[in-house]
Amino acid sequence: MGQFLFPLIMVAMLGFMIFSQRKQQKNRLEALNQIQKGDEIITIGGLYGVVDEIDQQKVVLDVDGVYLTFERSAIRGRVNQAAVETVAVETAVTEE
């Protein structure tokens, strides 16, 4: 009985590690897909910049007026989301 317990525990630990890694990979891919123009991001090298262009493989960052091109996989995460501009429209009410 004892000889089967150790391999069973090892298989369970391996399965748990694989499951956790896939979940992290899925979350990272989801986060990368949500990045859009205007977002402030940080790269894996610690460089902060604002996304100027992004496609499936590359991202162009604006770093204080200098435009740098990176692979999309070089993005560690988003620091701030792009500010959405809201425009207030005033309507004049005329009394009759």
TrEMBL record:
<keyword id="KW-0653">Protein transport</keyword>
<comment type="similarity">
    <text>Belongs to the YajC family.</text>
</comment>
<keyword id="KW-1003">Cell membrane</keyword>
<dbReference type="InterPro" id="IPR003849">
    <property type="entry name" value="Preprotein_translocase_YajC"/>
</dbReference>
<keyword id="KW-0812">Transmembrane</keyword>
<protein>
    <submittedName>
        <fullName>Preprotein translocase subunit</fullName>
    </submittedName>
</protein>
<keyword id="KW-0813">Transport</keyword>
<dbReference type="GO" id="GO:0005886">
    <property type="term" value="C:plasma membrane"/>
</dbReference>
<keyword id="KW-0811">Translocation</keyword>
<dbReference type="GO" id="GO:0015031">
    <property type="term" value="P:protein transport"/>
</dbReference>
<dbReference type="Pfam" id="PF02699">
    <property type="entry name" value="YajC"/>
</dbReference>
<keyword id="KW-0472">Membrane</keyword>
<keyword id="KW-1133">Transmembrane helix</keyword>
